[in-house]
Write a structure and sequence with these properties.
Structural class: alpha/beta
Largest sheet: 6 strands, parallel
Distance between the termini: 26 Å
Radius of gyration: 15 Å
Helix content: 40-55%
Length: 157
């Protein structure tokens, strides 16, 4: 299963519509948390929001997380040891107030377990790349693990 998430504050129709177009070719269920978007998916299960406990369960079952470049989702993927594909929202397309998500993917690209699609034209190839990841977890010090857990608990509270 692939889980797609765009966060709760804003919709991200460009990502949801692109994933909806790809869903029939992926060979597995796709579940999307669509947020406040206006696009209504036809090829994947879609929910405006997913309760935190259910989201954790879905992430645990997923082979890949596809998401906006929200740091909370990145931390969840790391904590659950799941590969994540990030596609940033863009300010020039009216998807966010600034390009902090572009900066986020600039810093995270190439790290173990993180795949970046600059836009929807790269999505299918990057999904294949993310699904092919087998040993992506980086060695993490106990201090780094504690910091990740503390930040995740703070963000998700």
């Amino acid at each position: 299963m692939i889980i797609v998430t765009v966060g709760m504050q804003l919709g991200f129709d460009r990502l949801i519509e692109a994933m909806d177009a790809l869903a029939p070719r992926l060979g597995m269920p796709v579940i999307a948390q669509t947020g406040k978007g206006s696009y209504a998916p036809r090829n994947m299960e879609a929910r405006v929001k997913i309760a935190p406990s259910e989201f954790e369960t879905l992430v645990g079952e997923a082979r890949l997380i596809v998401a906006h470049a929200g740091i909370g989702t990145v931390l969840t993927a790391a904590r659950c040891q799941k590969p994540i594909l990030l596609m940033p929202r863009r300010a020039d397309l009216g998807e966010h107030r600034n390009d902090h998500q572009m900066a986020t993917v600039g810093k995270l690209a190439g790290r173990p377990g993180i795949v970046v699609a600059a836009d929807e034209s790269e999505l299918e190839a990057r999904i294949a790349e993310g699904l092919a990841l087998t040993d992506w977890t980086a060695v993490q010090s106990p201090t780094a693990r504690q910091l990740h857990q503390a930040l995740a608990a703070f963000i998700e509270a």
